[in-house]
Amino acid sequence: MSANFKSSAPHIHGVSTWNGEMTDWGGHLEPIDGRSMNRGRLLWKGEDGLPEAGLWICTPGSWRLTLPRDEMCHFVEGRAVYRGDDGEVIDIAPGTVVHFREDWTGTVEVFETIRSVYMLR
Question: I need a surface site. Which of 36, 88, 108, 118 has the fewest CB within 10 A?
Fold first, then answer.
């Protein structure tokens, strides 16, 4: 599968299986079990750092999450559950699209490595 990050419209073909050059983004800020690791590929970032769009891959594990801004995710691989501090449960499977609002807080537990196309604003 191919990608063009220098295009006027940066893109990745076959994002659900693409394994081109990615960056190790390390662990999570608030790990619960300390196992989960992140890597990804930035597609585009605005001059002031926002918006940002890219591909995110995360291995199994769990962590606390507080989102400082709105984030849209299209999960194309894996299984996870997001549990909001308000009690809401969001089950993640391939094909799930979620818009997390700024200041969303809760926990995340990844059961099978997830792959998501995301945009932060």
Answer: 88
Q: What are the counts of helices (DSSP H) followed by strands (DSSP E) for the chain?
A: 0, 10
pLDDT tens digit sequence for 27-74:
999 999 988 999 999 998 888 878 999 999 999 999 999 999 999 999
| Pairwise CA distance, residues 80 & 62, whole Å | 9
- From the list 107, 67, 109, 65, the residue with the least C-alpha distance to 87 is 107
- Is the pTM higher than 0.85? The answer reads yes
Side-chain half-sphere exposure of 82, counting CA atoms within 13 A: 18
Q: Distance of CA 44 to CAs 40, 69, 117, Å?
A: 12, 17, 12
Q: How far apart are CA 54 and CA 49, in angstroms?
A: 13
